[in-house]
Design brief:
The strands form two sheets. Strands 3-4-5-6-7-8-9-10 form an eight-stranded antiparallel β-barrel. It is an alpha+beta fold. The chain has four helices and ten strands. It has helices at about 5-15, 20-25, 50-55, 180-185, and strands at about 30-35, 45-50, 75-85, 95-110, 110-130, 130-150, 155-175, 190-210, 215-220, 225-235. The N and C termini lie far apart (about 80 Å).
Length: about 240
């Protein structure tokens, strides 16, 4: 059958059944969605209207990022006061006070993020009694690495744990300030310094009351800082 004959039959069919022609205009246009590895439509092909296809086809839809108080690129500054050390603090001791800064790295490891940072602690003690004057200072420098766990997916709560290498610098001085020359010669003056180091495990929690400001509690196996409490600022 020729093309002209087919066109004629199609026109005659439309004139003979005008209602059928109007119905075909009102019916939603449909498109057969072909399988990627098929060149022809198959009986099992999925048929959708254009509006349905446009509403469901999202080739570049991004995965929703999980909520987290700390993520890659987040900076945290913590300033605290050491509330517990190994043994007891002597009366009149200042500190230790502590400060640390951690930066979230762009490293994916399970449900959390790794941070690297540096901590610093300082304490001093002085006594002047009964013609004896003593003073001592402690400075601890602590490179640290922490892992911030995000199982709760909470934008306000940050739970973390890690390791710190603590390098301590200590100085001590003693002086007899009385007027007895014999005691002055016996005691003499002492001015000494020493260093020590340790590897400590730490764990802590930070709760952000606002987007940038919060409070933290951190515990550690360190002899010089068993527990510290303070404020946290996020950048």
């Amino acid at each position: 059958m020729s093309v002209l004959s087919l066109m004629g039959l199609t026109s005659f069919s439309a004139l003979a059944n005008p209602s059928q022609g109007e119905a075909s205009k009102e019916a939603p246009k449909k498109e057969t969605i072909l399988l990627a590895n098929k060149s022809e439509a198959t009986p099992t092909g999925l048929t959708l209207t254009y509006s349905q296809a446009l509403s469901t086809y999202k080739p570049f839809s991004a995965k929703r990022s999980a909520k987290a108080a700390v993520s890659a690129g987040t900076g945290e500054l913590k300033i605290g006061y050491v509330i517990a050390m190994k043994g007891s603090k002597p009366d009149g001791m200042f500190g230790p006070v502590s400060a640390s800064f951690d930066k979230g790295l762009n490293v994916e490891l399970g449900p959390g993020v790794i941070s690297a940072g540096l901590g610093l602690s300082f304490a001093s003690y002085g006594d002047d009694e009964d013609d004896f004057e003593t003073s001592s200072t402690m400075i601890v420098i602590s490179p640290r690495a922490t892992y911030h766990l995000d199982l709760l997916q909470n934008e306000n709560l940050d739970l973390y744990g890690g390791l710190a290498f603590n390098y301590g610098i200590f100085s001590y001085s003693f002086e007899y300030t009385g007027n007895d020359p014999d005691l002055k010669k016996f005691y003499g003056d002492v001015d000494e310094s020493d260093t020590d180091s340790e590897l400590a495990i730490l764990a802590g929690a930070t709760y952000y009351f606002t987007e940038k400001f919060g409070g933290f509690l951190e515990v550690s196996s360190s002899d010089w800082n068993r527990a510290s409490l303070g404020v946290a600022i996020k950048f």
